[in-house]
Amino acid sequence: MKINFNLNGSDVELEISPEQTLLSLLRDKLGLFGAKQGCDVGECGTCSVLINDELRKSCLMLAVQVEGCRVVTIEGVSSPQGEPNDLQQAFLDHGSVQCGFCTPGMVLAGEAILKETLTPTRTQIREGIAGNLCRCTGYQQIVDAIEDTAQQRRTAVEEK
Amino acid sequence: MSEFTYLDKPAQRVDGLDKVLGTAKFVGDIKLAGMLYTAILRSPLPHANILHLDVSPALKVPGVVAVITAEDFVDHGNFGWPVKDAYVLAWKKVRHVGDPIAAVAAETEAAALEGMQAIQFELEKLPVVSDMQHALDADAPLVPLEAPLGQGNLVNTHLVRNGNPDPIIAACVNKFEKTYHFSHQEHAYIETEGTLAIPGPDGSLTIYSNDQSPFITRDNVMMVLGLPQEKVRIIQPAVGGSFGGKDDINYQHTAMVGALALKTKKPVRILLSRKESLIASYKREAMDITIRLGADENGYLQAAKVDLLADSGAYASMTPLASWRATMHAAGCYRYQAVHVDAKSVYTNNSYSGAFRGFGNTEAAAAIEQAIDDFANQLGEDPIDFRLKNIVRNNGEKLMTGNLLQQEVGLAECIEWVRERSGWDEKRAKYNNQSGDIRRGIGIACYMHGSSLGGEGADYATTTLRIEADNTILVTSGLTDYGQGSRTVFALVAAETLGLNYDRFKVGCTDTTTSVESGPTVASRSTMLGGNATKVTSQKLLQVLNFAAADLLNCEPAQIVRDGELFIGPDEEPVPFEKIVEHAREMNLTLYVEGKWEMPKFEWDFEKGEGTPYICYTFGAQIAEVETDLITGETKVIGIWAAHDSGTVIFKQGADGQMYGGIGQGLGYAMMEEMKYDQGFPANINFRQYLIPTALDMPEMDIKFVQVSFETGPYGAKNMAEPTMIAIAPAIANALYQATHQRHNVIPLTVERLATGIEPVRKASPSRIRKGLGLK
Q: Quick one: B433 exposed, middle or buried, by C-beta within 10 A (0-12, 13-18, 19+)?
């Protein structure tokens, strides 16, 4: 069957099988390996993507469910030239990355928080990333990076 | 630390950009044309004889290309160090649930699974050893094929003999004795185990494995496949966490895909599902630790006796060494006249246990630090005052193992810092007078942690540096980076030593063909060993550069002075690095150097239980504040203060991350992480049954590095990855004791234990385990 959706800013039409998960579509068919496979049952969050600006676990979704949606993967966060965006740069500056396996999902979880509010409390940030497991960092520097980016984006909005 | 240009300053991780962009390639992200997928037949039983195994039906399944068993390996794939008791694929019998029996390679994952399910096998159930306390009973079934010490399920013993504590304790007016229990812990790296083998036309193998120690992986592949060194190349791709957990199981996987790749002449990949990983991978040892202490009338500790029993599970793996580290730390960072420690590790059918961050000291420190707290309470002393009276403080003081400290000690400073930052004195007093169901408590724990391998083995590392055509500098090390940040540490040390900009340095993934063997990447040894090797290598490269600069500037190398990347001779004309390199090339100088650093020699006598176990130690103190509901047991850690005497910090954000992350794993260990075995069957086979901390479980952490320089370390650095995790569990337990006045003597302190005080029963589901392993 065919589905149409917007993937990282481009409209796409793809042939899929009805039982295919979104994660499988991204990794196995489109070669987008940024969404990782960590548990396949929605427990770890490393496969996270944004669907219409909301954080979703792509292993729990069927590809068919994104018909007509805007899908953003980690590959759609950086500039087309491969420059990190402000949140990704904040992850680098704050030391929020260790092994890096949860990082794509964490960045997207951060984006989802920042799309909702640019004034999140640290507790709200923690709630926003609570579905994404990280075994390396103890989360503190991830919270720092998201909080810092919120501040930067807030300043940018205020300056306009 | 202002004397440094690059160390302990904000720096971006060398492998960070690929990771935030999502372009870092983990094993599961590598797909090759014609690549075969693997399914492993694993034992659904904890202990059984293999009566019958027929893999031929698998070969009839469409898409299946090859199947292997123990018969496909030299000496049936027997491996293991220090005890050679394991097999790549089970031979004669299976000894734990998840023990691999056969491996199928097929064109699709579905065909591999179907092929695996078609294998005909018959297992004859054997009685199970499920309780380590009964593993050495006269009638206990034998778990290994042969008893390694001729004493049934005994894996190893260790001892410390420092004086004679018995008469001292007997004469003490204050005595203490208690046993503390520790459960198995799962590493729970977010990336599961993965390996990809690519066969070469000459019968060679190139293998990408998400392991910790590629040279050990290589040596194992050579041994079990009978290949010479030049035919096995192991490359470590990006690794999604390990924490000690991706060694032995990946030795098995590399051998399996290696054999399958040679057999099929195609690339073959193994990637475990989460369930398979949780069922089949090794764990932290469960331990029971009994501590006896004696103190004089003024509360000064006099002597300690510790007995330690470790559950090694089905194989020895690293338990003999982890239990040695536990033995070397069992009485903690305190002054004693005499200490005896006796440790035993035993085989059971509870999965198998091996390396995990802290490597035995996680349990040992958690036991002694709860004991010290209990003893302080028994004596009516403040837990911090009692510790400050008894800790080791000075160069030359005797440690629990009888050797003398040969370094300065930052422990008292760590304790004072966490005491002040946490508001200990005020909170401690306040929480001593509470009523109602919601209670708070604050608790402390300290630690010492021997640096690097110590008496475990030869300790050395080699770094290489090569100036590339674009004047960047490629660093390689035989020590690997699976997230801890060692590559960045090496780049920073090289930049500091050479006086060249940090962004010139690129650090390659460890590759057994291009990097130089440096021992295992374990024991928090990378900074000290790899850091020193990088410093030595950088000094060698600097000699070459100064030689070229002197030639260019018509002076002696000793006359060259530096201003950043500029080389300046007696005529004071600054010459940039690029010009010096250009001239060095014109002189045909080799712009590649290797440098090895080896730990100074010292010795521990394993038979007598005396000597020097480690050249140096790190120290630290951590405080936890908790809020708990006396009725429901629901507990929240609301604050953590941690200070670590690390020596010089090299990679600032990386060091902070090690501390925060170590505390995270320690908090999980303290409160929720428990791999339970029900007659050998695992009761936790997914992340709903095995919980690890989320961002909501973690409080804000306030941390500090007390940088007491250690002159043997690179620029005064010691180490940090493991020790940062080991004090938090006892600190939380001690905080809970203040809040509840109950000591459960068990880690983890799960909600159920706190609510009921009763040891929870966990039932495993053999049918769900079968399903989790892909069996019908």
A: exposed
Residues 130-149 on A with a CB inside 8 Å of B are 130-143
Whole-Å CA distances, B328 to B160, B525, B614, B681: 7, 17, 9, 32
* Domain count of the fold of chain B: 3
Q: Tokens 């481009």 label which residue?
A: A10
- Residues of chain A above pLDDT 90, percent: 98
d(CA A83, CA A79): 5
Domain containing residue A71 = 2-76
Flag whether residue B228 sits within 8 Å of chain A, measured between CB atoms: no
What distance in Å separates the CA atoms of residue B126 and residue B95, rounded to the nearest whole number? 9
Last residue of a domain, one of B570, B598, B626: B598
**pLDDT tens-digit profile of B610-646?**
999 999 999 999 999 999 999 999 999 999 999 999 9
Nearest CB neighbour to A38, from listed B191, B242, B652:
B191
Distance in Å, alpha carbon of A126 to nearest chain B alpha carbon: 5
b/e sequence B650-663, b meaning 16+ C-beta within 10 Å: bbbbbbbbbbbbbb
Question: Does residue A144 fall inside a structural domain?
Answer: yes
Is ipTM over 0.90? Answer: yes
Put simply, the chain A residues between 40 and 99 with a CB less than 8 A from any chain B CB are: 40-41, 43-44, 46, 73-75, 77-78, 82, 84, 88-89, 91-99
Burial class of residue B226, CB neighbours in 10 A (0-12, 13-18, 19+):
exposed
Q: Do A95 and B654 touch (CB under 8 A)?
A: yes
Sequence-distant (6+) residues with CB within 8 A of B11 are: B488, B492, B502, B651, B652, B653
Shortest alpha-carbon distance between residue B172 and chain A (Å) = 43
The pLDDT value given to residue B2 = 56
Helix (H), strand (E) counts: chain A: 5, 5
Structure tokens at B329: 């730390």
Q: Identify which of B240, B243, B664 has the shortest CB distance to residue A101.
A: B240
Q: What is the DSSP letter of B352?
A: B
- Residues B159-172: what's their mean pLDDT? 98
- Those residues whose C-beta lies under 8 Å from the C-beta of residue B755, and which sit 6 or more positions away, are B631, B632, B633
B669/B566 same-domain check: no
And the tokens for B738?
């203040």
Considering the domain boundaries, does residue A81 fall inside one? no
**Residue B566 pLDDT greater than 50, yes or no:** yes
Pairing of strands B677-678, B681-682: antiparallel
The full DSSP string for B614-655 is: -S-EEEEEEEEEEEEETTT--EEEEEEEEEEE-BS-SBHHHH
Instruction: Please tell me the distance from the alpha carbon of residue A97 to that of residue B24, in angstroms, as a whole number.
Output: 12
The answer, for A24 touching chain B at a CB cutoff of 8 Å, is: no
Tokens of A82: 């491969």
Say whether both A9 and A50 belong to one domain. yes
CATH number at residue B668: 3.30.365.10
Q: Are residues A72 and A107 in the same domain?
A: no
In this structure, the answer to whether residues B421 and B310 fall within a common structural domain is yes
Q: What domain range includes position B54? A: 31-126+193-271
| C-alpha–C-alpha distance, residues A32 and A14, integer Å | 14
A32 and A53 co-located in one domain: yes
